[in-house]
Hints:
The protein is of the alpha/beta class.
Amino acid sequence: MQIIENAIGGKLTISGSDRRSPVFNPATGEQIAELPLSTVEEINAAVANAKAAQPAWGAMPPLKRARFMFKFKELLDRHASDIAREISREHGKTHDDALGEVTRGIEVVEFACGIPNLLKGDFSRNVGPGVDSIADRQPLGVVAGITPFNFPAMVPMWMYPIAVACGNTFVLKPSERDPSAPMLAWKLFQEAGFPEGVLNIVHGDKLAVDTLLDHPDVKAISFVGSTPIAEYVYSRGTANGKRVQALGGAKNHMVIMPDADMDQAADALMGAGYGSAGERCMAISVAVPVGEKTADALVAKLKPRVEALKIGPATDETAEMGPVVTKMHQEKVLGYIDQGVSEGAELVVDGRGFSLQGYENGYFVGGTLFDRVTTDMTIYKEEIFGPVLSVVRAGSFDDAVKMINDHEYGNGTAIFTRDGDAARAFSDSIEVGMVGVNVPIPVPVAYHSFGGWKRSLFGDHSIYGPEGVRFYTRLKTITSRWPNGIKSGAVFTFPS
Ligand code: NAD
C-alpha cells in the first residue's frame, strides 16, 4: 500500500504518526493509498523549516524568485497530464476536466512570474522639501494554506505561487482525500530549483490545521473549504492575530430570463450543474427561470439532457461526469435526494440507483433534476455538492434577485438574457462576489481575483491575482531625507 509522504525542508519523509486515513479510487471504491495524519511535532518541523528558509528567500531579488517560477511553469506544462491523472485517480473527475483544473493553476503561476512588476510599489518625490516617500510591499514570513478535495492541484496553486513569489515561505496542508496531485506538483517545484523549505507539505486533519492556526510563526492562513470550517479557521486564526482569508461553500443560482436562448441556457446548466459531478464551489445548483412559460420550456430542454448524461470513470474518455469523492459523500448526496422528495419537490430525473457495470463499488450518483423546489426546502438552503440541480420558479426578475440576495451564500451567480438592461441591473444589485452574464461559471482569470460575498468568504481579501499579492505582503512606507550628501568626485565606470 502506497504511503503518502510529507515534504519538509526539501525532503520527503514518512510521518511517524499512528493515525492514518485511507485514500480511495472513487470510481472503483478500492483503497489505493494510506495517508498518515501528521503529529504536532511534524507540523512544527515544517514551520521551523519554512522559517529557516524565509530570510534568504525573502531577501532574494524578485526577478530571481521569478526565474524559479518560470522554470516551475515549464515543468508544470510538461507534466500537466501526469498531474491530471493523479487528480482523476483520487478525485474521480474526468481527464479533460482535471487537465482544465491544472491549466487554471498554471495560469496563477504565470501571473506570479510577473512578481517584479507586481511588487513595484509607489514612490512620491518631494513630499516635503528634499523628502521622498516610498510605499513598499514586504513579505509576511511563513504563511500556510489549507485546501479542499475538489481542486487538489488548482486550489493550492491559487495560494503558494503568489505567496512564495512575494518572498514568503509556505506550509501546505492539502485535503486528506486526494493528496497525490499536490505532491507531484511539489516534486516539480523542487526540480525547478527552489531552495529547500520554501514550500513544505504536511498531511493531516483537524490537529494539523489547529497546530497551524495556533503557531506563532505562521503569519497568515489561506483556507478554502466548507463554510463551517472556513468560519472556524477565520475565528481561530484571527483570534491568534493572524491574517486570514477563508473561502467557504456556495449555492450558486443561474437566472434564465424569458428572452434567453433556451438551448444555450440548458447546455450551460448541464456543464455548470453536472460537470465534476457538481463538486465545484462555482457549480450552478439552482436554476431560476423567470415566468412559468420559461420554466416549462427550460425543464423540457433539461430533462432529456440530464437523462443522457454519460457517467463513467476517468479512464473512459467519453464520460462527461465521474463519481463523487467518497462513499460517505455519495450517501450524503443520496440522502439529500430522498429529502427533496419527502419535502415535496418534483423529481424530474432520479439519479438514485445508478450503477455502472464493472464499477459497482464506485461512488456514482446519477444526474438528478428537481423542479418546483421552494426556498424553504433543505435541498434549496444547503450546499449538496453533487450532481443535483434544483429548479426554483420565480415570478419576476425582482423575485429572482431577492431570492439570491436572501441566500446565506454569495459565491457565484449568472444571468442568461439578451437584454442588456436586465443584465446590468442584475450585476448592479446582486449580492454575490462573482457574476456571469451569459457565462455560467464566471471564475475570474488569474490576473483578477476570486472571492465570494456573505458566508462564502470570511476575511477582507479575495484569493490570487492582485488581491493575492496584497494578502501575502504588508505595506511599509519609508519617508526619507538626506540633509548633507557627498556630491563630489566623478565616476567613469558603470556601477557593478
Ligand atoms: P472541508 O471543509 O471538509 O475541508 C477543507 C479542509 O479543511 C481540508 O484540508 C480538511 O482537512 C480541513 N478540515 C476538515 N475538517 C476540519 C476541522 N474540523 N477542523 C479543521 N480543519 C478541518 O471541505 P471539502 O469537503 O474538502 O471541500 C468541499 C467544500 O469546499 C465545499 O463546501 C465547497 O463549496 C468548498 N470550496 C469552496 C471554494 C471557494 O473558492 N469558495 C473552492 C473550492 C471548494
